[in-house]
Structures are given as structure tokens and as C-alpha cells.
Amino acid sequence: MRDALVAAAFQLFPERGYEQTTVDDIVTLAGVGRRSFFRYFPSKEDVVFPDHERCLADMTAFLAAGTDEDEPVRRVCDAARLVLRMYAENPTFSVQRYRLTKKVPGLRAYELSVVWRYERALAEYLRGRFDGRPDGALRADVIAAAVVAAHNNALRSWLRSAGQGDADSAVDHALGHVQAVFGTPPAGASAEDQEDVVVVISRRGAPMWRVVREIEATLGRD
Fold first, then answer.
1. How much is the pLDDT for 203?
2. CATH number at residue 173
3. Which of 159, 167, 165, 193 is nearest to 179 (CA)?
């Protein structure tokens, strides 16, 4: 039933336009009643993103299942890969949704709220791991933002290419930058294997975007 409603919605959106398509139109095409729709989706926006609640729950459970032995930056990078896996399960649908979202401002705003929830889940995990360290909360928020930015940069490039190419490799490459900057080298790594450490000093209360910009500038990256 849930899949039938999503299929009906995405058949109608290209034909009629998102704004012009009503819940009644969707349930009529799917052959069900309005009550069935709202049993699965609180709103029309939710039918566009039917899998994010499940993915967020999977991510939260994955992070909660970690141990103190897990390198925290690597753990949040692996958690972000669960989002990629969700998109890669159905590339055709993911590309169609991406194109629809680009056209509808309300859906872009909804998507940003979803991305923010992913980022908060990563940050909460990292705050717990960095608890008691100097600037632990700040470090957690910066790393969470960097993981989401790197993941989404690679994911959107893949979606813009209509799902062509190796999404896993692109995301691995992007998250590798985060791991290199913020992660802890594996035990026993030689000095040659380790990246130089750069310390950036920022005033208390600086907005997060400014902190990230200072890091990028220090590293000489665009």
C-alpha cells in the first residue's frame, strides 16, 4: 500500500505538477481512500521522502551500537554511508525525486530540514564521544557539518549525472577528506602515513560557517 501510494504520486507529479497534484488525486490513482494515505504519510511532502524516517532510525541505531573502541570520526562517516545506500537502492526514483525537489521550493525547504536531522544525529553521537574534552561540543558540531557537506556534495554530483558512475567511490573520496582532517590515525601508523595537524583558533560564539571557512582557508582548500 505504501509503495503503491508513492508510485501513484510520482506518476502524477511529472504529469500535473507537484502543486497541482492533490492527495485526492494520489489516492484515486492508487485505488485507496484518504485515510489509507494519512496512515502512512502525515502530508503530501512526506510521500516525496518516504524512506528518510527509516534511514534516520537506522543511522541512530548504528551510532548507538558503537563502542568506545570505534574511532568516532570513522563511525560517523560510516553512518553517513547509510544515507547513500538508501539512495542507491533505487537510483531511478532517487534521480526523479532530486529533479522534482529542485523545482519546488517547499520541497527544498523540507529536504533541508531532513538533512538537519541527520546532522544533529551525528553531532549528538560525537558530543557524547568528545564529552569532557576542550571544545568537545564545537568539535562535534564542526565534524558533523563537514561529514554532511562532504557526503551531500558527492551524492548530488551522482544525482546530477542521472545516477551514472560509482556513487560509493565518490562518497568514499569525499568522506576521506573529512577523515584525513579530523580523524585519528590508526594505532601503529607511521609518521609518513599521518597527515600534518593544523590548529585553527576562532573567537567564541563565531557562527559555524565562519569556523568551517577558516579551516578551509588554513588548509588551502576551496
1. 72
2. 1.10.357.10
3. 193
Q: What is the spatial distance between Cα 181 and Cα 106, in angstroms, rounded to a whole number?
A: 35
Task: Give the torsion sign (CA, 152, 156, 158, 163).
Answer: positive
N- to C-terminal Cα separation, the chain: 46
Each residue of 60-86: b (16+ CB within 10 Å) or e?
bebbeebeeeebbbbbbbbbbbbbbeb
SS3 220: coil
Domain that includes residue 103, residue range: 49-219
Q: What is the predicted pLDDT for the residue at 74? A: 96
CB atoms within 10 A of CB 2: 14
Average pLDDT of the chain, as a whole number: 88
Give the count of domains, the chain. Answer: 2
**pLDDT (tens digit per residue) in 128-160:** 999 998 899 999 999 999 999 999 999 999 999
CATH code for the domain in which residue 7 is found: 1.10.10.60
Q: SS3 of 17, please?
A: coil
Using alpha carbons, select from 209, 144, 146 the residue that is nearest to residue 174.
146
If phi > 0 it is left, if psi is from -120 to 50 it is alpha, else beta; for residue 17 that is left
115 plus 30 within the same structural domain: no
CB hemisphere CA count around 16 (13 angstroms): 14
d(CA 58, CA 72) in angstroms, rounded, equals 17
Report the residue count for the chain. Answer: 222
